């Protein structure tokens, strides 16, 4: 028994789903899959139901089942389903599209309007001594327009 064109198409179409899952989705008994796997020809009604269940091109499915010829179908294969499109798109194009979409996402405004954020040491006790002078703590950033006054401790601006 050699693998038929129809069975190869069915395996690609259901993409890892079990025969039971695919049959339930298409609305017929899973025994059809067993017959197809053994090389039996597909009935046109089953071909159409399966193609519709997976949003596949019905004419292409009929040709794959060899119920019509490729010439009769005048096939011009165009991916129609999301899975077909993703599988047929080169990974570099997918990556570029993800980057493009990420750049379109709205940016979250900083919650701290003064743009200065004190660093917290990893071993800092949970109880913080509120009497400590803020100038003794390191800072992440400061406003570029701010100058450093003579009275300022310049070490707070070191990164």
TrEMBL record:
Write out the biased-composition intervals (Acidic residues): 146-159
Chain segments carrying region Disordered: 105-159
Highest taxon in the source lineage: Bacteria
Name listed for the protein in its UniProt record: Uncharacterized protein
Taxonomy-wise, where does this protein's organism fall, top ranks first?
Bacteria, Bacillati, Actinomycetota, Actinomycetes, Mycobacteriales
